[in-house]
Amino acid sequence: MPLAFPSIAVVGSGALGTYYGTRLGRAGANVRFLLRSDLPAVRARGSMVIHEKDGTLELRPAAVFGTTAEIGPVDLVLVTLKSTANTHLAELLPPLLGASTTILTLQNGLGSDEYLASLFGRERVVGGLAFIASTRTGPGEVTCYHPGSITLGELDRPAAARTHALAAQFTAAGVTMQVVDNLLEARWRKLVWNIPFNGLAVANNVTTDVLCADPAFAAEVRALMHEVQRAGTALGYSIPDAFLRQQFDVTPPMGAYQPSSLVDFRAGREVEVEAIWGEPLRRAEAATLPMPRLAALYSRLRSLPR
Asked: Is the CB of residue 271 less than 8 Å from the CB of residue 248?
């Protein structure tokens, strides 16, 4: 069966971009990776690499480029840059866009779907949430601890046929997929994990096993989860109690996992403070929904050295 998206550009070849781009390429797509500092090393090796508990997957040869102009128009643009780099998207993406190119953003937090739609049109944008535990371990190389899944949806409308086709292509590449008709509800659900675990990990410079095992940290994690649940529910999104329990219970088996924000913080890179903590707080406050614990955590994160 022909692929719905035969050519794919990966913009942001860190942990997410490397993982999903490699899998899509191994499943038959012509995947082109945008690289900067990693470009010489990956070109010399000639491959993108995934390490998993069951073994190693390699995409060879890997099509890697230093500019989007070199890549040219594609059927799908996979945006896996950190949201802190979004100011570069207006310049990076146009060379990749043909008449019917779809843009899939897997960025964390809130706001990326709307931002991309404002730049390139709502008709192009599909939103995605990656539930995965993975870490970049070298140039074009990622270690995946828990493959998880991706949830796809469209901005302010039910999922269209192209979103189901996109999900089918990822499924064929070995990725567990879910398609939803309410993208913002899915994004608020992901915040149930991201706000406490990413935030408290950075604020205290600890891994998730510490947050789960220490009674005080675990209590704060659960309190933040409930605060996100209350705000999301008041905004019209369904976030059941069972989902909160599942999000906490799935974390201890990850061991001493470093969430993506902690990886960035420890490496001296800018943390996605606004997308993950600032924007949800602003949306809640605009609806007069108090989130005092989030407000305090956001204040702490903003005060950390960048």
From this structure: no
Q: What values do phi and psi take at 284, rounded to 5?
A: -65, -45
- Structural domain spans, the chain: 7-181, 185-303
Q: How far apart are CA 120 and CA 115, in angstroms?
A: 9
Task: Fill in the DSSP letter of residue 276.
Answer: I
Residue 251, C-beta contacts closer than 8 angstroms, at least 6 positions apart: 193, 197, 208, 211, 212, 257
pTM: 0.93
CA–chain centroid gap for 36, Å, is 20
Mean pLDDT by 10 residues, the chain (306 residues): 95 96 98 97 98 96 98 99 95 98 97 97 97 92 94 94 98 98 97 98 98 99 98 97 97 92 94 98 97 99 86
DSSP string for 116-176: HHHHH-GGGEEEEEEEEEEEEEETTEEEEEEEEEEEEEETTB---HHHHHHHHHHHHTT--
Q: Which of 23, 187, 190, 283 is catalytic?
A: 190
Q: Give yes or no for a cis peptide into 305 (omega within 30° of 0).
A: no
Q: With contact defined as beta carbons under 8 Å apart, do 152 and 126 qualify? A: yes
pLDDT of residue 123: 95
Class of domain 185-303: mainly alpha
Q: Can you read off the two tokens belonging to residue 80? A: 């896996």
- 53 in active site: no
CATH topology of domain 7-181: Rossmann fold (3.40.50)
pLDDT reported for residue 146: 87
